[in-house]
Amino acid sequence: MIFKRLIAIVAAAAALWSCGGAGNRVQTIEGETITSPDGHLKLVFALAQDGTPMYSLDKDSLKVVLPSKLGFALFDNGGDLQTGFTVKEVTRDSFDEVWEPVWGEEAQIRNHYNELLVALGREDGTAMNLRFRLYDDGLGFRYEFPVENKLTYFSVKEELTEFAMTGDHTAWWIPGDYDTQEYNYTESRLSEVRGKYEGMRIHNASAEGFSPTGVQTALQLKTDDGLYLNIHEAEVVDYPTTNLELDDKNFVFRTWLTPDAEGVKGRLQAPCKTPWRTVMVVEKAVDVLASRLILNLNEPCAIEDVSWIHPVKYMGVWWEMITGKSAWSYTDDYPSVQLGVTDYSKAKPHGRHGANNENVRRHIDFAAENGFDAILVEGWNEGWEDWYGHKKDFVFDFQTPYPDFDIAALNEYAHSKGIRLVMHHETSSSTLNYERFIEPAYDLMNKYGYNSVKSGYVGDIIPYGEHHYSQPLINHYLLCIKKAAEHHIMVNAHEAVRPTGLCRTWPNLIGNEAAMGTEYRAGIHAGHATVLPFTRLQGGPMDYTPGIFEMDMSRIVPTEHGKMQMTIANQLGIYVTFYSPLQMAADFPEHYQRFMDAFQFIKDVAVDWDKSVYLDAEPGAYIVTARHPKLASLNKAQESVATLKDGKKNAVSGAAKYVYALPENATTADLARAKARDVWYVGGVNDENAREVLVAFDFLKPGVNYEADIYLDGDDADYEIAPQSYKIEKRTLTSADSLTVRMARGGGFAISLRELL
Amino acid sequence: MIFKRLIAIVAAAAALWSCGGAGNRVQTIEGETITSPDGHLKLVFALAQDGTPMYSLDKDSLKVVLPSKLGFALFDNGGDLQTGFTVKEVTRDSFDEVWEPVWGEEAQIRNHYNELLVALGREDGTAMNLRFRLYDDGLGFRYEFPVENKLTYFSVKEELTEFAMTGDHTAWWIPGDYDTQEYNYTESRLSEVRGKYEGMRIHNASAEGFSPTGVQTALQLKTDDGLYLNIHEAEVVDYPTTNLELDDKNFVFRTWLTPDAEGVKGRLQAPCKTPWRTVMVVEKAVDVLASRLILNLNEPCAIEDVSWIHPVKYMGVWWEMITGKSAWSYTDDYPSVQLGVTDYSKAKPHGRHGANNENVRRHIDFAAENGFDAILVEGWNEGWEDWYGHKKDFVFDFQTPYPDFDIAALNEYAHSKGIRLVMHHETSSSTLNYERFIEPAYDLMNKYGYNSVKSGYVGDIIPYGEHHYSQPLINHYLLCIKKAAEHHIMVNAHEAVRPTGLCRTWPNLIGNEAAMGTEYRAGIHAGHATVLPFTRLQGGPMDYTPGIFEMDMSRIVPTEHGKMQMTIANQLGIYVTFYSPLQMAADFPEHYQRFMDAFQFIKDVAVDWDKSVYLDAEPGAYIVTARHPKLASLNKAQESVATLKDGKKNAVSGAAKYVYALPENATTADLARAKARDVWYVGGVNDENAREVLVAFDFLKPGVNYEADIYLDGDDADYEIAPQSYKIEKRTLTSADSLTVRMARGGGFAISLRELL
Predict the structure, then answer these.
(1) DSSP B78-91
(2) Mutation test of the interface with chain B: which of A151, A208, A262, choosing the one with the most B Cβ atoms within 10 A?
């Protein structure tokens, strides 16, 4: 349909917001509209008089996004890719399907939206389309550049997408950055961002010249009308990641892309499209957690055979390096090392190397005994003596073990116990080097039976001048995921870009870090875990590495003084609160051995779900979640591990053990009934204020008795005073029951529920 | 030996040079000295009063390099790595050996020098050594950073190495650049460089912010005392390439390194060393051509089995693209292409694609008939439609042929005729992408029997912000050479960095471009070929692609108007004047068919030598060279080609045919004698002024008659008026003979000499 009507813009007479801001912004536009399937959200698209595309978003009678400009500044084509457009064609569509993720928070996801596609053009032949998809819980839109276009190759100076807020909302934010998301969150009004900014900012290379009000996505907002908004992006492919620049007079966000080494913020070749820009709009905090907006905006799974992809619960030779108990490196003999030149076989070991045969075997034994799938071993390969901070190009070859790490024997030993080793590829951010070695490195993994890799991107990027979130790096991360898929390898990338739902398309991306995780120890604020599910986890799972039972770092290394700001029950609660198909029990075996009754929950909890119920939540305060395991997935994962070695079945995963648990005199009929029985897990996490939450169990099957193992903060539990105080209660519960649960300061809770046979 | 004497500096009272310059520069230093083996050159090392290392170089009573500073400015370690040094130890050594290059201008090379190693240190533990090697024909010196050092990782802001000239020398120079050496040479006094600079400079990205007096190495100089100096560098490995910044008041050159994307001019990790800085000092121009200074300063061959490396004389499907007669690309269907997405099998061919089956077969036939070894085919692979100028990362996959290039059938056809195809890898300077595909690309070559690759680096470098001569790219080129060696592949890299003798260490680097070559057609000044052997060729052979017989471009493509500035005899002369183990006959078969008698020289000439005699030369004017072929090498190469297919011997190379030529009724004894007979080739090239040169044949075996085929400029030959005028004379010559040869404007000559049986 050719669209020829003039779209008028009605400038509202006065500003709607009560505080801050110049009141001369246009308040309403009239033009093309679509509504969400449930009719509550309304998207309006219009052209300003100068031909600038604009959009606005309402929820019922509430304005959500005021008329906001769209477009680009370019380095070429005259620079202006914002004004002078006319509408060439408008197309509407709607879509409704249910799809099944390979792994996830639920077995089925509904993807239901109405779509508006506006084809824009200029007389000179420049063409730019805008595609809007309106869901019940929010908006996604992207720019598309068709092939019939004056634009073929062009470079973005700035993407000018605005998100004009209606007022001085409350935000949970971290400062903008081109290289890291490893920040604590700040809760403040938008007008307070500038004032709180400097204290938050990490002064790294990418901070220079950056905005003093820029924040990162996913940005969680709450309006004074009680709406929860969440601004993010979906499907960031071949395009830089964006920050959000805040005009804190008018409360208008604008995209602020990550520049590459030449300052270019996107090199495009038509036909192409940008990532989706998303605005979630829901009435309850738990609906943010339940939203699948980001996943739905990504493409369907691109991997045909996904049989090799499965959730993983793992332990690792890792926390001991993080805490300073042991080291990644092998020797102190050299001021620096040169791979292929330095002869480690002649080096004197410094005696603190964590990834040694004996220590790895000890971890394998403990993991196997306790139903884990895998052991991560960091520091196994040559080069750790000077891996950090030198912008060293050839820093690792990802293939050569230290003399005390017998890669063949250790894998064989692990497999004999039903355990896989998790490969570790720290790139030291020399992606140039990693790409040179990625094929032989993955070949090595295949050779020894590794099926997952934790990759790391610590430090400044090589190629020099690039950033962790610039377009060439976005392409690098995806290249690794694709190559890994060819090798049937699952990827858990740390310090890479925050995820934007790509795990739907590439489900072998089973984890990312991309936020401040447990490794920050005492540096993490008590409420951190109550924000991440609203922000970082919107794009995909996080390898948060929870499960710390010893919070006092000085008990590990006497010269350390930090104390982590959470309780043991909080750590248990995270396994349910944070969805991830990859969950670590991060602490030492010897720490778990001191608290085996609490550790039982980590052994029992599942890592893949067919149903999730978000019971209660408020960002930055608390979250309570219930989840129902996907047993088929659990069993498949278990089988993959159990048949590693000579077809022998060895370990049985903890969660499977929990589900199938039977008395010794059980009959075959009992086992069949056990396999069919209902199981739920509930978890809660809390901020730094003690509070009570009411947990109603109405999600359970009615009329069925469940045996519940309830892991609670002890009566004196407190992250500062008594972080290791917990209590465990056993009860029988039904769907008619509810419990008032007290969470300590920095506390939490966890519950396993199993249908009584 | 511990050196504790105070080294004093004697400041000379007055400047020695007669024109230009502030006269306050120190003229003499006293300190540690070494002399060249023949005693004529003297190197003095001393510390200035502030602890700055300095050196000077004399030849007998003539000063060559006035006291010149050494050192660095760093980004770290306090910045200053020039002052405050004391001498910790001085070591002297001498060396004399004869080594045999895998290929070259002579079978044996003498490496004979005296060495001075000065260990410098500071109280803070900073250590820097200077190693000087003094040859009869010049000086090489480098910085070395030992492992016992305060410096471990450090970044160079500027290398401060000076070369203080004694006066306003005549120079043959091209402007400094970070990305290209493709310039005509300018002959001028040093004081005139600034004035002539702007006209010369290519205003590309790397020109911005660069010095208005910077020039490139190898820089050929001539003093008013009649000395020929040549400033260059040797063994540039893991370090940026340098330009020479000229202080044109004082005639002092200083190193000006190529910055990387972050502006760093070298990232070093001790232990390490810089490239050699070299100053050749000889009394005759021909001695510059005879010098092996650069090769001698490189490391011995690093490849154990060199049996697969051999010289190559080749033709190609190439000049037709350069002249515009045909195209690298296949279709005009798309404004841009996407590899793996664009379906070429459905594209409409534009009909101008050069690398099509029929055309390649035609070239194979002609090459086989005329005794060549190989055919280069450019434009064989998908992606040429938009390969240039878009900074496109994924521009080629180096593996997927266009629909009309049957890679299996064409290689099979070529091999059946004793011809190899030469692979072509244009990277479009996206080295990031090339490194991703280099292994499968080389595997593909191995699969189809390619044993050499011409690689290309046209356009701006990706990684963004890097330069063709910055350290990461230097490392890239070497990475390719090493990987190629693993695959038994010979490399001919175009638009890569100018060579600095690395072919001694990696003799599979059989060619480089790195200068303005024949592809510039009418843009090349007439005297260009008389400068390159003094400059560009000092570092290693050049794939200059001579052999053009049709100089009028309009006869190929009527809309072209350029006329190349040389004669046919000049083109023949280049085959002897320019040493290269890789020589192309660049023109079309149909052009050679018009001049088969002149083409005979190209067929007959060898490409590898056991002896070279530089008869007469003056840079920028003329060069006359005689060379004696290394027949063993020729035969080996021939064998490698001839046994390609089913062990059948097919083509016999032109040079071998020439050597073995016998009458039809020859006996076996005749053949044996033929194999032993003496053969020489002589070539001359001239500038834009017609001149006569006297060629004395005293290099021939005395008392032996040689039949000589003499290819001369025709009487009316002139590059502007009659470039295709030539005459061929046959004579019998002995070592007692000499010939006065007239070379036309832009002309030259060539002679084949074969012992009469």
Answers:
(1) TSEESSS-EEEEEE
(2) A262
